[in-house]
Amino acid sequence: MIKHPVKVHPSKALLKREDQLAWKMAAVATDKIKVDRDVQEMIINRIIDNASVAIAAINRRPVVSARGMALGHAKKGGATVFGAKPGVTVSPEWAAWANGTAVRELDMHDTFLAADYSHPGDNIPPILAVAQTMEKSGRDLIRGLATGYELHIDLVRAICLHEHRVDHIAHLCPAQAAGIGTLLGLKQEVIFQAIQQALHTSITFRQSRKGEISSWKAYAPAHAGKLAVEAVDRCMRGEGAPSPIYEGEDSIIAWVLSGRTQADSKGRGTVFEPIYYEVPLPGPGESKRAILDSYTKEHSAEYQSQALIDLAFRMREQVGDINAIKSITIHTSHHTHYVIGTGANDPQKMDPKASRETLDHSIMYIFAVALQDGSWHHVDSYAPKRAGRADTVRLWHKIETREDPAWTEKYHSRDPETLAFGGRVEITMNDGSTIIDELGVANAHPNGARPFGRAEYIHKFRTITEGLITARESNRFLEAAQNVASLKAGELAALNVTLPAGTLLDAKPGIF
How far apart are CA 358 and CA 340, in angstroms? Predict the structure, then answer.
């Protein structure tokens, strides 16, 4: 990997495109290096994973609405829509919208955490939609997805968006555009422009994950995918983009992220702060392997809760009488405390009438339910009746989080052996006794007690789609997904999953 410094430059510097991050990202996208076998196998795992969580969410309101919008943009020879019958195809940007929403709705697919947050599986819907529309092969798809994952994760390693309250789709959209560029075999110039357009149009803010969290949390990555498809389409037609998009004096880095510009002491001119980022990218001929550093979810909740859910299951056996608990303190990382813990100072996270989208970002609620039930279900654990149970509310309100510098350090570790997202939990009983335990990584994590492999991905697919699709359709899809590298041009519709006739809900009418 080569670390590339990225900082703000004044317009008069006339920064060469060869020195711009977007150009260097486009170079990675056009590198025709072969996809390593283990990377290909992990891409297959994530195609299965995405389909599983999409079908499990298929008739939830946000997904139904997104699907309804997409079906209003029918296109012969276009892209498939999760759940819809074979032969129903729509324009690819709308398939990216519908399928991306379905994938994201349950907050149960893959994750990568570093300087920022990400769900790199969000790259799959738009790249697959374009692959189907443009009649590309399974091998083309794999190459495009390897690029999307690589560039997305590389940006997340280096550039923190959340500290400036910028939503993390700002890293996703450029990666999606680059992945589409690799898929289609576009020239570096075209991908360069598409990456810049994608970033420019995808800057949104984190209020979508604060307060009354709405369905936009599921729509956000789908919106990025739609924007990415549109950006590539425009640039294929010869259109350009604001440039340099990362380094310009009025760029996102200049005015929103670290490296801001400011007036001098007399209010004249512009002073450029020397703050810069270092973004790691594969060198020429170097394999794109970033997907192997990401990890999926066993439980439908924010990733920082995964290890703590598993820990709650384990501590449940030690506690015995849960009603005898006086208080629970979760010592954890800065992120967990301030984003999904009591450090957020967000009353919604303690409200039994809060939305599902809010509850899955409340570690207090999640730990309480996991401790009481000893299990986790992507629907039942968030049901309004379950959230409103009096004994659950009492326990929930006894829980607080505290930042522990040691766990923050583990959270930001660059060493995969010490990287951890869990915490230490101290349960104080009414009699004054305490029960203390800790867990660094979830059981499903590559370093966990039960790391996910192909068998676990297939089990997850079969478990959460049970009763929604037929056994025949389940078997057909799993066979197609595991043989994606053998699918020929025009055969990628096999990666769609169809619900039985009459079981797919219709959306309320809108404009489309």
Answer: 9
Same domain, 266 and 228: no
Same domain, 102 and 195: yes
Query: How many domains, the chain?
Result: 3
DSSP line for 164-195: GTB-THHHHHHHHHHHHHHHHT--HHHHHHHH
Instruction: Specify whether the CB–CB gap between 47 and 127 falls below 8 A.
Output: no
DSSP state of 469: B
pLDDT tens digits along 330-358: 999 998 999 899 999 999 999 999 988 88
- Asked whether the bond before 280 is cis by omega within 30 degrees of 0, the reply is no
Average confidence (pLDDT) over 317-322: 92
What is the rounded CA–CA span in Å between residue 318 and residue 275?
Answer: 49
Answer whether residue 445 shows pLDDT above 60: yes
Does the pLDDT at position 217 exceed 90? no
Q: Give the pLDDT confidence score for residue 468 in this predicted structure.
A: 97
Same domain, 31 and 156: yes
* Residues 249 and 269 occupy one common structural domain: yes
- What amino acid is encoded at 257 in this protein? L
Q: Is residue 496 part of a domain?
A: no
Is the residue at 291 inside a domain? no
Residue 388 pLDDT > 60: yes
Rounded alpha-carbon distances, angstroms, from residue 129 to 56, 123, 229: 20, 11, 9
Whether 480 maps to a domain, the answer reads yes
pTM greater than 0.85 (yes/no) = yes
**Mean of pLDDT values over 53-65:** 96
Please state, in angstroms and rounded to a whole number, the distance separating the CA atoms of residues 265 and 505: 61
Instruction: List, in order, residues 6 or more apart from 384 with CB less than 8 Å away.
Output: 353
Pair (76, 130) in one structural domain: yes
477 domain residue, yes or no? yes
Query: What confidence category does residue 212 fall into, taking pLDDT thresholds of 50, 70 and 90?
Result: low
The H or E element containing residue 437 is: strand 434-439
Range of 197's domain? 21-240+453-490
User: 229 and 108 in one domain?
Assistant: yes
Q: What's CA 222's distance to the chain center, in Å?
A: 10
- 3-state class (DSSP) for residue 260: coil
Tens-digit pLDDT profile for residues 393-412: 999 999 999 999 999 999 98
